[in-house]
Amino acid sequence: MRSLVYYVASTLDGFIAAPDGSYDFFPLEPDVAAHLAGAWPQTLPTAAHPAFGIDRPTGRFDAVVMGRGTYEPALRVGITNPYAHLAQYVFSRTLPPADYPDVTVVADDPVGYLRDLKSRPGGDIWLCGGGQLAGLLLPEVDELVVKLHPIVAGEGVPLAARRFDPARFTLVDTRPFDSGLVMLHYRRS
């Protein structure tokens, strides 16, 4: 069975974006960029591959799932296919699927859809964001990889917006960077 991996940047106080959904306050330091290009190239937008020297991204993912808010920044700059190297699923009840043929727009129940997607053959699935979708899908998340930035935001989009229901994960790896970011890798306990 495929794994669902929530791979996301976060502030120290647990926010993945500003209140308006923007995330440009997260710096991409050279030491982190080099690591991402080598170890996580599939998580970089297709348009950024040439800048990182990526010809053909390889890795564990063959699909990405995201909420409408995560997809929106690409749409604002005219990109309807941000991760063209992956099968892309956007959960939205407002986007007309016919208007976005480069992605699969899903208006169905995210949990049921993800369970079905995980049961199909293929590589692992990257949960790109956002906080509302992550909150709904947390019971389906097999791994959590957090790029923890040394930033306190105060408010914003939470890592996983959900009712109080603690979910336990086990730390399997840490990687600190000179720039202050720490990459934390967890598996579901």
Automatic annotation (TrEMBL):
Residues 4-182 form the Bacterial bifunctional deaminase-reductase C-terminal domain. InterPro entries: DHFR-like_dom_sf, RibDG_C, Riboflavin_Biosynth_HTPR. It comes from the Bacteria. PANTHER family: 2,5-DIAMINO-6-RIBOSYLAMINO-4(3H)-PYRIMIDINONE 5'-PHOSPHATE REDUCTASE, DIHYDROFOLATE REDUCTASE FAMILY PROTEIN (AFU_ORTHOLOGUE AFUA_8G06820). This is Dihydrofolate reductase family protein. It comes from Micromonospora cathayae. The lineage of its organism: Bacteria, Bacillati, Actinomycetota, Actinomycetes, Micromonosporales.
